Request: fold
Amino acid sequence: MQAVVERVILTTSLCYRRASSSYATIDRHRLARAYQGAGFSAGQSDALTNLAVENLDEINTEMRKNLATKQEFASLTGELRLFVKSDVNMLRSDLAQLEKSISADIAAVRTDQERVVNRFVKWALGGASSAAMLGIAASRLF
Reply:
């Protein structure tokens, strides 16, 4: 008996199909033939088919209740646009702050670079002057 029930469940699931809308439908004739092929009488197969159709109608009714209306969808679309605009404005603000921060960091690096160059020039000129003075002093001694 359990094997018959499993075949009936499998057959019932195979007889469901998607209609052109987003709701499922049942091929009643195919389902009734499948029940009869599984050993059910014509009356039993009709009763089971009707039960399956009623259950599917209830499911479709519940699905329709939970779908958004055009107005709800339009409202949600408007809200999403506002959120996107808000997020874009926040990103622009963050980007502007980041650009200012990077500009300040670049200016600090340039200042440090100028200090290093100035120190190098001072040391190089000092070293060259010292070398020149030592050269002059050495030439006077000899």
